[in-house]
Structure formats: C-alpha cells, structure tokens
Design brief:
By secondary structure, this protein is mainly alpha-helical. It is built from twelve helices and two strands, in the order αααααααααββααα.
C-alpha cells in the first residue's frame, strides 16, 4: 500500500528501484518497449545525435577512452572492416589521390617516402633523413640546383620537386641531398653530377660544389 505521507512514499519508491527484481523488470520492459516502438527510438536517437554537447562528448570518448581503442582495433581486424575498406577504396579513388597528394607534399610525408625508397634501394634503415634535414634543404634550395628552375614550396604535381642524391651510390645525408626538378632527376639518373651538368650545358648551383667538397 502506498504511504499517505509523500516523503515516505518517495523513499519507498527509491528503495524499490534499487532491488534486483525491479531492475530486472525494468530491463525486460525497456527491451520490449524498444522492439514495439522502433520508430520512436530512432527519432529519439537522431535528435540526440544532433546535440552539439553529445557530439563533443562522443568525439572525446573515441579519442581518449581505452575501450574505444579496443573496439577500433577489433573492428579493423575483422573481415567486415576489410570488405568495407576495399569497397570504399574502389568508389573513392579521387579522394584517395587527393589525400595522398596532401600527405606526400607535407614534411612528414616526404620523410616517410624518402625513407621507404632508401630501404628498398640500400637495404638499410635510414637514420639521417629527418624533418629538420628536409626543412633545411627546402630553405636552402629554392631553385633546382642543376638547371636553375624555380621550385614551389609545396609540390602540386608529382614531378614538381624531387630530392636527389649527389652521389647516387650512397644514402641520403646532410652532404648528399639536394632539391631539384623532376625532369633533371629523371635525366641525371645515376650519372656523375658534374659530368652530366657539363653534358647538358648547365651551371650547377654553388651548393653542389660545397657539398661535393665536404664529402
């Protein structure tokens, strides 16, 4: 029987809600209600998803929660994830090209790309290729060191800016890296720097002579 006193009745309801029987009843009731009212549940969820506070909270949870990392790792290893990525890659090739272009024009992307090539070419783990080295070379070599063509700060096309070995048989280092245009890099290939420039009729930048003398 409910109490006549409102305070006592509220206290009774609070105690009742804490009992295992009531919790089990609520769980069962809510599950049945959701099954019967799918449209209402969907509308409530959509409204909640548009709330800026909820968006910020969810974004923060996915970035900081250890549980989110476990969920993401488990999903990435699943067959469903692989099929989804394969399908997405097939239908979004232009987006992937733009993303790759942005990444490989960044300092971090350039470093990783050059390291990958060094591993393949010299079968070593390159340690001299760093962000500081790329920044230094970019500031130093504003023009192609071979033909003198002006180079953009960030490459728009694949052959706008290349990083070349002065000595093609040694890995990149502070004294063995210059910035040039793609055309010169492809034509020079593994030839001697000074002989190739003389053959092409180019006057190399003074930094080429300085680096060659420092070796």
């Amino acid at each position: 029987m409910p109490y006549k006193d409102p305070e006592k009745e509220r206290e009774r309801q609070r105690r009742r809600r804490k009992t295992p029987e009531y919790k089990e009843y609520q769980k069962k009731y809510q599950k049945e209600w959701r099954l019967k009212n799918r449209d209402k549940v969907k509308a409530i969820r959509n409204k909640a998803e548009k709330n800026p506070k909820r968006k910020a909270s969810r974004s923060n949870w996915w970035k900081t929660s250890p549980k989110a990392k476990v969920i993401r790792r488990r999903f990435n290893q699943s067959i469903k994830s692989k099929e989804y990525r394969k399908k997405w890659n097939m239908t979004n090739r232009e987006k992937i090209k733009k993303k790759d272009a942005r990444y490989y024009s960044s300092i971090k992307g350039i470093v990783n790309y050059l390291k990958k090539n060094e591993r393949r070419k010299f079968k070593i783990e390159p340690e001299d290729i760093t962000v500081d080295l790329i920044i230094t070379v970019n500031k130093r070599d504003k023009n192609c060191v071979y033909c003198g063509k002006e180079l953009p700060e960030k490459s728009i096309n694949k052959n706008d800016v290349h990083y070349d070995h002065l000595n093609p048989f040694k890995p990149f280092s502070e004294t063995n890296m210059v910035r040039c245009c793609g055309a010169c890099n492809h034509q020079k290939s593994n030839a001697d720097v000074l002989q190739w420039c003389e053959f092409k009729g180019y006057t190399p930048d003074k930094i080429v002579y300085e680096l060659l003398n420092n070796k």
